[in-house]
Amino acid sequence: DADVTQTPRNRITKTGKRIMLECSQTKGHDRMYWYRQDPGLGLQLIYYSFDVKDINKGEISDGYSVSRQAQAKFSLSLESAIPNQTALYFCATSGSEGETQYFGPGTRLLVL
Amino acid sequence: SQQGEEDPQALSIQEGENATMNCSYKTSINNLQWYRQNSGRGLVHLILIRSNEREKHSGRLRVTLDTSKKSSSLLITASRAADTASYFCATDAMNSGYSTLTFGKGTMLLVSP
User: Fold this and answer.
1) Most buried of the four, A25, A61, B97, B112, by CB within 10 Å?
2) Chain segment B30-78, per-residue pLDDT in tens
3) What would the pLDDT profile of A72-111 be if each residue is shown by its tens digit?
4) Are the C-beta atoms of B107 and B11 separated by less than 8 Å?
């Protein structure tokens, strides 16, 4: 969905490096989410934000941090990347409680 | 932890056949949603069914929800090769005072011409 963009689309990094994944949306939604997807495990929620001043941990937040710079921007950081953080990362947005989530195209991250 | 679990994990059918995928979940929900994912791409919302609804249709999609059994099914009728994708159910439930979606592991559907 072009309304939700993620950069970079692919990233290779080394163990111990700090990296940031960025998400932008033009849908005007208040709610934004970060998920990771591992093969065979579906999507797991890392962090979510219901507005600029409201950020909450998801089920697998350890090793990650986020920043909601504006309504339209939500960044995910890996402070010190480790190989088991190799995964496909998705950003998503939604407009209100329990409604449809709109996903970005994903960032494929490889940690060596 | 996964709230929704899809069954089967993989399904292979011929074009024109119907495909049925099931989802079971554990706790009370506000609604249940089905998403589709083409290989390595973002998820796309297909249909949402609320906890007080039993059946919903959208084009060739039919979704049922049985809250007493905590289960849902997604039926794709007259499947096409373009329906080949992974399908995920996601349950919307309250979690520590917030409503969030919890995704299952998905069903991989292969539709052969």
Assistant:
1) A25
2) 899 999 999 888 999 999 999 999 999 999 999 999 999 999 999 999 9
3) 999 999 999 999 999 999 999 998 766 899 999 999 999 9
4) yes
CA dist A81 and A107 (Å) reads 15
Could you tell me the CA-to-CA distances from A89 to A15, B1, B107 in Å, in that order?
Answer: 17, 18, 19
Cα angle value B66/B86/B52 (rounded, 5°)? 20
Strand-pairing partners, residue A86, are none
| Chain B residues within 8 A of A33 when measuring between CB atoms | 100
Residue B1's pLDDT is 46
Q: How far apart are the first and last CA of chain A?
A: 30
Distance CA B93, CA B102 (A): 8
- Distance of CA A36 to CAs A90, B18, B21, B31, Å? 6, 31, 23, 22
Chain B's closest residue to A10, CA to CA, is: B40
Give CA–CA dist A32/A43, Å, rounded. 15
Residue of A100, A108, A109, A110 for testing the chain B interface, max B β-carbons within 10 Å: A100
Interface contact B44, partner A, CB < 8 A: yes
**Residues sharing a CB contact under 8 Å with residue B69, sequence separation 6 or more, in sequence order:** B24
SS3 B83: helix
